[in-house]
Amino acid sequence: MLFDDRTFYTRTTGKPVLIILHQERSSPGRVGHLLLEKGFSLDIRRPVLGEALPATLEDHAGAVVFGGPMSANDDEEFIRREIDWLSVPLTENKPFLGICLGAQMLVRHLGGVVAPHHEGLTEIGWYPLEATEKGRALMEWPSMVYQFHREGFDLPVGAELLASGSTYPNQAFRYGENAWGIQFHGELTRVMMHRWVVHGAHRFELPGAQVGRAHLEGRMDHDGPLRDWMDRFLTHIFQRQGETMAA
Description:
- By secondary structure, the protein is an alpha/beta fold.
- It has helices spanning about 5-10, 30-35, 75-85, 85-90, 100-110, 135-140, 190-200, 210-240; strands at about 15-20, 40-45, 60-65, 95-100, 115, 125-130, 130, 145-150, 150-155, 160-165, 170-175, 180, 240, 245.
- An eight-stranded mixed β-sheet has the order 2-1-3-4-12-11-10-7, sandwiched between helices. It has a two-stranded antiparallel sheet with strand order 5-9.
- A hairpin with a 2-residue loop joins strand 13 (about 240) and strand 14.
- The longest helix has 27 residues, at about 210-240.
- This is Glutamine amidotransferase.
- Pfam families: GATase.
């Protein structure tokens, strides 16, 4: 089922989760659906289109910053503004999740480095994931995850590495009590993946990338465990001891 932004926001009555997207037609996809199922409403903002971010998250249950085709190293004003804004959830200790570009922005905010692979390799398709000891203590993780990126990040000082990969070692981390970053994508619905495969086909020739057929075939084998993990992960971030933070 597909929702427009207004439906996402008004379907439930709890405190909204702030959703930050980076393209006009971007969607929170599966993450949006799962948050709605957990009783949250969604407040969707697109800073790239000039939409303002709140000065405080007092009226929000937390925030999720999604991916996008731009780089956290770009000198665009909205990129710098978003990276600076991350002081809000960190200072207020609000639940925060950065996905791909969102994780890289968090790394930049914390003083870490975002950069391409030293051999120019990309991760575009399905790739193995291995949880660290701290990650395994937190929950069960999927063995394969969906990736679509040409840059990775180092681990910020004070962060805990939760999951790793062979090409880009830093795949998931936690900073402090409530800030989380993941390099891979658990938010893609089937429709979203088909759109990415069509519009991103020119990237399948990059070093390390998989052909489009492998993206769709891999979904049949690997998406179920990834979806289940995303559900549990969002519960862990935005709910505590069975009590929703939406109220």
